[in-house]
């Protein structure tokens, strides 16, 4: 799209699902589109939404994006809830801490 915004495949919810990776001034963010449908899916990414076209793939995508964003200290924009946040861990579980 641009040197700072890249479309990335995030399959599972609907065919052809994409999200956006944004890199600017050394910071990274992911605009997640339809990857997450509620706050519980950050803590329990294997929980499926009834409208996920490919539930197993959707859960794998959620897990992968959580791992990626956590390892990169990236900001997540979770469109259906939470807004902007960072993936944090407490007692071995992931949460999205709003910023």
TrEMBL record:
The keyword Phosphoprotein does not apply. Transmembrane segments: none annotated. Keywords: Hydrolase, Metal-binding, Zinc. GO terms for molecular function: hydrolase activity; metal ion binding. Belongs to the metallo-beta-lactamase superfamily. This is Metallo-beta-lactamase domain-containing protein. It comes from marine metagenome.
